[in-house]
Amino acid sequence: MGSFDPVTEHARTRAALRAAVARLARLLRDIPDPDAPSGLPEWSVGDVAAHLGAVYLAYCSAFTGEFTGWADVLPPDDGPFVERITAVNAEAVRLFGDDERRRLGDFVAERGETFLRVTQGLAPDAPVAAPWYGQRTVLTLATATGLLLSESLLHGLDIARRTRLAWAIDPDEARLALGQVMPTMMPLALDVARARDVSLAYDVVIRGGPRLAVVIDGGAATVVRDAPPRAYDCRITAAPVAFLLVAFRRTPVWKPVVRGRMRAGGRRPWLAPRLTRLVASP
User: Fold this and answer.
1) Residue 48 class from Cβ within 10 Å (0-12 exposed, 13-18 middle, 19+ buried)?
2) 1, pLDDT greater than 60
């Protein structure tokens, strides 16, 4: 498994996002009952759709400046990752009233196309301000594009599961999302309190790529793709969609394990479930 080309992978992620936006827009237009429970705590299907609208608005606005109401959405101070994101999400879904929610399919399609247009030709490491993650948080464009893809895939699944509409996540989509998102978001989402006295190294091998070296030490984490050989405490080998769903709490870890889509190995394989407890998910 050789090292990846960030420019080529970013281009592939953009193409995957373009296809996902088209599918997502159709899904949002076809929601039969926006008031139906979504399976996510305290959110209806319509709330999930509104969250997606807020996500696309936020990333688009990072380049267009069209949204100026951050003072009403963002907490005044940085705090624990999950608490901050939970608070931001709760405020952001209120940006869309009933009339706006009926047009979310068109809204997402338009903002998705705008994001792809205004970022065309920019380098994968171009900076993107992301104050919803932290007041001074800056992502790369590659990470932001991967996050838009992962949000689309996962929340599309949340909606489809409760509405019985068609939705599938392709393994290649999952590989791109994981490769672009995890090196940045796993360190950001680390539960610092739980990780304070932890010193562990995980070799996370996604079938077909990517391969991630996840090192947690002294309340901080680093995630490196295609890292040089080293000693690991635990190796996790997983199918891409299975790992995406476990990482974002869409399925319990035992399901892909019993289906042969995820397994643990290395010197201390029993440490595999601990990784999901150390890295938070809102």
Assistant:
1) buried
2) no
